[in-house]
Structures are given as C-alpha cells and as structure tokens.
Design a protein that fits this description.
With 113 residues, this protein is mainly alpha-helical. It has two domains: 37 residues; 52 residues, no CATH class. It is built from six helices and no strands. Helix 3 crosses helix 5. It starts with a helix and ends with a helix.
Length: 113
C-alpha cells in the first residue's frame, strides 16, 4: 500500500519536474513533504544490555578507595577507632557527601596523610 502511494507521488513529481509555474512548484513541495511522511521509518536497533563487568569494576574500585580512605582515617586518628565502627564511619562518610550533619568532626575528614 505504501509503495503504491510512493509510486504515484513519484510519477506526479516526474511530470511536474519541468514546470516552473507557481502552483506546480507548491504542489511539488507538498508532494515531497508527503513523500517524506510516507517513507518507511528506519527501525530502531534492538536493546543491547550494557557491559556490566565494566560497571562492576568501576564500582568495586570506587568502594575500595572509600574503604582505604576510611582505614587511613582510623589508623591516623585512634580516637575515631574508639568511638565508631568501620561501618558507622562508612555511613557517615556518605552522609557527609550528601551534605548532612554527621557526628565526626570536619577536621577528621580533611587530608589524613
């Protein structure tokens, strides 16, 4: 059905190609627009699942860095080791990143090395 309409439009456009009358030009433009609307749409590619191994590696390396930073804090400041467990420090680290108030003073979060 679509190919029949496209064939008709193409035939009419061929006939109007040589005419330089105002009405023929406007008809040609309108037919070209209709031809573009009728044209078969390009099918979208199928969904391809992202490579999760790369995402997992990034996440893993990020978490290793966070835990290493927290271990460095605990080793540098023994008073933190006495007050907070590693898991509590982990939670407070991310709470501080979100801008929330945490129990650990800001002085400890600065460069511990």
């Amino acid at each position: 059905m679509v190919s029949i309409e496209l064939n008709k439009i193409n035939a009419i456009l061929e006939q109007l190609k040589g005419l330089h009358i105002k009405e023929a030009v406007s008809l040609r433009k309108r037919l070209n627009k209709e031809k573009e609307k009728i044209a078969v749409p390009i099918p979208e590619p199928e969904f391809v699942a992202p490579d999760m191994s790369n995402a997992n590696k990034r996440r893993s390396s990020f978490m290793k860095g966070v835990w290493n930073y927290l271990k460095l804090l605990r080793d540098t400041y023994p008073e933190l080791r006495e007050q907070f467990t590693p898991r509590q420090m982990f939670s407070q680290f991310f709470a501080r990143r979100r801008g929330e108030d945490v129990d650990i003073n800001d002085v400890f979060w600065q460069n511990p090395s």
